[in-house]
Structure formats: C-alpha cells, structure tokens
Amino acid sequence: MCGIVGYIGRRDAIPVLLEGLRSLEYRGYDSAGLAVIYRNRLQVTKTAGRVQNLRDQVNDRAKATIGIAHTRWATHGEPNDINAHPHTDTAGRIAVVHNGIIENAEQLRDALTKRGVTLVSDTDTEALAHMIAAEATGEVSLEDAVRRVLRHVAGTYGLVVLDTQNPNELVVARNGSPIVLGIGASEMFVASDVAALVRYTKQVVYLDDAEVATLHASDYRVVSLEEGSRRGSDGSKVPTTVEAEADDYELGPYEDFMRKEIHEQPEALRRALRGRLDDRFATARLGGIDLDARQLRGIRQVKFLGCGSAYYAGQMGAVLVEELARIPSDAEPASEFRYRNPVVDPDTLYVAVSQSGETLDTLMAVQELRRKGGQVIGAVNVVGSAIGRECGHGVFLHAGPEIAVASTKALTNMAGSFAMLALLLGRVRDLSAADGQRIVAGLRALPGQMEKILAEEEQIAEVARRFAAAEHMFFIGRVHGWPVAREGAQKLKEISYVHAEAYQAAELKHGPLALINASMPSVVVVPNDELVSKNISTIEQIKARGGPVIAVTSADLPPSLADAVISVPAGEPELDPLLLNVPLQLLAYHIAAKLGRDIDKPRNLAKSVTVE
Ligand code: BG6
To answer: Sign of torsion, CA 542 547 548 550?
Structure first.
C-alpha cells in the first residue's frame, strides 16, 4: 500500500504535504514525490528512497497553497525517480497520486500509445493522468472528467487529481483503497489515513467505494462515481470527530515506533477491556456484535481469518474459543480461504481479523463469505476501514494507531478481544459463573502483569544480544504455546531477517530435530499448564543434541534447565499466551537492534498489503 496526501487552503502546502508523508511512510517507503501549483504551473519533485530524500530535494521556496503528495510501495514498475508519483500528462497540466492497483492498466496504456501518447513510466497510474487531461476539455469539469475516466478503470484506487486549469480545487476518488477528508477552517486535507491530518483537524469524512469528492478551500462535495448524484443526504458525509491525537503518531521518548508500541500494550489492552467486562454475569459485553443470546447459542463453529500476525492472533482466539465455549474453532490464512472456493457453513461464525482493515486478501475473503451468505464479524483496529465496513459489525480493537510494520499492540488487543468473545460464547453455554469470573479477573490482571514483563526488558535484551549472531532459530510450543511460537518466529523474521521456523513441540522428533546443533538456538514456549513436564522433556531432547535453548515461561522452571530462562507472571492458563508473547516481541526487537536493522520499516514489507 502507498500513502497519499492532498492539501488546499491558506497554508504553505509543501510543509503540510511533507509532514503528511512522514506520518504515512509506514504505508510504503521505496520512493516519494509531490506536486504543487506555483505561478500557474505544476512543480513536480519526486525521488527513489525515503521521504527525507524528497525533503532534501524539494524547492520549498515555492509558496503554493495547493498540492498533492505520495509515498510508495511499488507494484507496477520498480522504485525509481520516474515511477515515483505524482504522474502527469504530457503537457504538464494534470498530476495524479494513486494508492491501489489498476488491473486493466495494460489495455489503458496500449490505447494511449495507439493514440500517440508517449508514456514515460512503467506505472498503471500514469495512464490516468493522460486520460483525465484528454477528457477535461471544453465544458467538462475536472470532476466529470475524472468520473468518465474511472468508468473505464478496473481495480482499486484512492487517488487525488491536481489541475493547473482548475487551481482552486482537488478531485478525489475511492474504490477499495482508504481515503479520508480532513475538514478545516478555510482549508481541506485528504489522505490515506488520519495520521497525515490529525495535527491540523479532527473533523473527518470517510469516502466510501465508488465515490468522488471535489474539494475547495472552504467547501467539499461528495458524489457517486456512476451517476454523479450528490452523496450524504443521509448525513454520512457530515464530518465525524476522530479519537486519535497527533502525539499518537510521534515517537516521544522512544527511538522507534515498535518499541513505543510494545510499551503501550498495557494501556492499549486496558482500552480494549474498558466497559466490556461484566462482573455481575461473569461475562463480556461486546456491543459491536449484533447477535443476541439465541443467535450466539446457534453458532456451531468459529473460524478466524487473517494474514500475517492477524492469522496467528486468530489461532490464539481459536484455542480460547474451544477452551471456554467448547465449540470447534480454528484459524486459516485469509488468502488460502478465499482461493480454495470454501464451503461456507451457515452455523459458523467467521471472524475477519485485521489491524489496518485494508489487507486485500482478508477483505476479499469477507466479500466471498458475504456472497455465499456466511455470518462474518470484523475484528479491526482502524475505524472507517474497508474490512470494518464490509463486515458491518464486530469488535474494534482500540489499540490506537500502530505505525511500526511489525504488529505488536494490535495483536495483543486481538487476542484480548478474542478472550472476551470466547467468554461471551462460553457464558451463553456451559461455562460456569465461577470460571467466567476467573477469566474476567484474569483479563483485568493482564495489563499489570504486562507492565511487570516490560520492567524486565533489559534482562530480555541481554539474552537477545547473546543470540543475535544466530543465522537460524527455532520457535517451539504446544497448544497454548503453539500460536505464541508462530508469532515469535514471525516477529524475528519480519524485523531482523534471521531465518526462523516454528514447530509444534511433538513434531520435532518427526524431522526438525535433525537440524538441532550448537549454532541452532531454540526458543521453547512453556505455559503454566498441564503440559509443563512435556515441554521440559522437549527442552531436554534439544539440549541432549547440543542445541542452545531459551525457555520463555509462566511456569516455575529450574534456571539450569535452559541456556536462558525468561519468566513471565503466571496468569490464568487460558490467558498466558498474551503474556508469553511479550518477551518474544522484545527478543526479536533487541536482536534486530543489535543487527542494526531499520526496525519500523523492514525491507520488502508494508504495514498492510492492499494488493494480491
Ligand atoms: C503485513 C504486516 O503486511 O500484514 C503484518 O507487515 C500484518 O504486520 C499483516 O500482520 C496483516 O495486516 P492486517 O492489517 O490485516 O492485520
């Protein structure tokens, strides 16, 4: 995914655009660019690399009050100065920034080439600039020209159009990629995410798919792509107030967002629990789930769908649902689910899990479910996101903005939300009030227990530094510990680029044990449950073959059992995975820090992938 920003108003546009790009850089960071109208002409600056490169190159003496900007995660055309956005038409009249994928780009480019247009980049987006310029002639307004062109476009887009012949307006369109308008006093903002505008205004309007908006400094209008009819008579286009604060997007005392977000987990989890725990009935209240007790009882199975860490959080949810509600539950990568032509079961509750709410594979899985009449709820962090809208009901994660590409606090709030879902489903079935109360108390204790783990960060960092030279690492767990091991391996891979594999403990002896040797450390996750002795023998098996072991545990293990033992407070066994996950985040973080990695912006990754 890319990040786009637009501004029209009374301020100097370039600093606003650069600041906006800086806060959206987590969305894509392989090239960047901006365009403003200065002395009735387009002034375009674009470059491969980070926003800082752009800041160094842009001529900020150009005092302009309207402009657009873009930070890229390349899909069509490699990251370089030419393929960076904005893209313009040959005459340099129209400039376009775009987030998404135009599926029929080849045909559009061929048609332009046949018409004698010279395309200078390899991108899908450039075609739009030429087509809009060709359409916006005579009486045709820029808005109508954009609408006419987009009727020929297949694919996803969030885009902003700048036109030297209409220097007092920006035209914006959305289909599949997020677009939010920021409503100011005599100024308007547009961006892929509120991060780019929350420091200027809290009044926002989310565009829906197939909507086009025209912004002037002091007003805006939203119309439908097809008819051009005005949108919002139902009040849907009246500004709403966002929760986020500008500081949420600042590092504060931290050197990077990942460490900041790891340390924000206790407070983030408190927010997710707030107002949702019911002591009287020893259950949870999830007001966003539009199912009554009878419908909840009618659910025969729960299936979690997500990508990356969201999938592993879903696995934690499945263990909790089976344990507390005693109904079958599992998790599946959303991409796998949607492509295998799934048999959708009417009595199954599907949970679409996504921090960003924009991950395309998960969105398409939801659309496949809705097409087949499946009952699906969302568990998303970003309000106004596509998956949240598509599901229509579900659980907001309240983790606050998550900027670092590797997910931490959002995953914790996913697992916390799933513990509450499991509690709710359990208490409309046979989970006793005593057990319900035990889980309610256990959930309330989690933030404090996490604070204790975070206070031990330096000890965990010391262990990380001891093993940072390893080229490979195993992560091992069973039942409660299995999804934790998988997420632990994911974190290490994502940010340190160390090859890491997760295995179910009992599977080791059926193959992977062959790889154990002195240079292959294993992280063994040992929850404080009925399988402690089994996990101890797993550690002994590895040690017997000369493999170094880091034990991460909520049980009472002899310190000599492993090369390093990282202990966490023992909570309710069902909830231990949420605690055991934190040391693995810190382990990955401090190994990556030791290796000098760019922790917030790991190579080849993006915060959410809006392409297939
Ligand atoms: C990847 C991110 O692109 O998408 C991961 O790098 C994330 O951190 C995964 O877990 C899924 O994203 P989301 O937003 O759908 O939870």
So the answer is: negative
For residues 113 and 544, what is the distance between their CA atoms, to the nearest angstrom?
67
For residue 357, the CA-to-ligand 1 centroid distance in Å is: 9
Contact present, 443 and 273 (Cβ < 8 Å): yes
Active site residue ranges = 2, 607
Residue at 341: amino acid letter = N
What was the pLDDT predicted at 28?
A: 87
Instruction: Locate the DSSP E strands across 390-462.
Output: 394-396
Distance CA 176, CA 180 (A): 13
Helix, strand or coil, per DSSP, at residue 439: helix
Which residue's CA is the nearest one to ligand 1's atom 3?
Answer: 608
CB 379 within 8 A of CB 331: no
* Residue ranges in the chain modelled with pLDDT below 50: none
* Cα distance between residue 331 and residue 337, in whole Å: 10
Give which of 370, 326, 340 is closest to 352, Cα–Cα. Answer: 370
The rounded Å distance from CA 565 to ligand 1 centre is 30
Cα–ligand 1 centroid distance for 306 (angstroms): 9
Say how far apart CA 77 and CA 536 lie, in whole Å: 51
Question: What token pair was written down for 346?
Answer: 């009417």
Contact assessment for residue 358 and residue 175, using Cβ atoms and an 8 Å cutoff: no
CA proximity to 383, closest of 367, 400, 361: 400
Nearest to 55 by CA among 18, 27, 80, 86: 18
**Pairing mode, strands 94-99 and 170-175:** unpaired
Residues 6+ apart with CB under 8 A from 417: 272, 286, 379, 395, 397
* 399 residue type, one letter: A
The tokens for 579 are 């605690």
pLDDT of residue 233: 63
Amino acid type, 51: V
- Residue 235's contacts (CB-CB under 8 Å, 6 or more residues apart) are none
- Residue 566's H or E segment, with its range, is strand 564-567
Closest atom of ligand 1 to CA, residue 605: 6
Question: Which are the contacts of 418, defined by CB distance < 8 A and separation ≥ 6?
Answer: 304, 313, 314, 316, 317, 320, 321, 351, 379
Taking the CA atoms of the chain, what radius of gyration do you get in angstroms? 25
Phi, psi of 116 (to 5 degrees): 85, 10
| Largest CA-CA distance found in the chain, in angstroms, rounded | 82
Q: Is the peptide bond before 86 cis (omega within 30 degrees of 0)?
A: yes
In this structure, which residue's CA is closest to atom 4 in ligand 1?
608
What per-residue confidence (pLDDT) applies to 257? 97
- C-beta of residue 10 within 8 angstroms of C-beta of residue 27: no
392: left (phi over 0), alpha (psi -120 to 50) or beta: left
CB atoms under 10 Å from CB of 603, counted, come to 10
CA distance 93 to 37: 10
Q: How far is the CA of 383 from the CAs of 193, 243, 254, 464, in angstroms? A: 10, 10, 26, 36
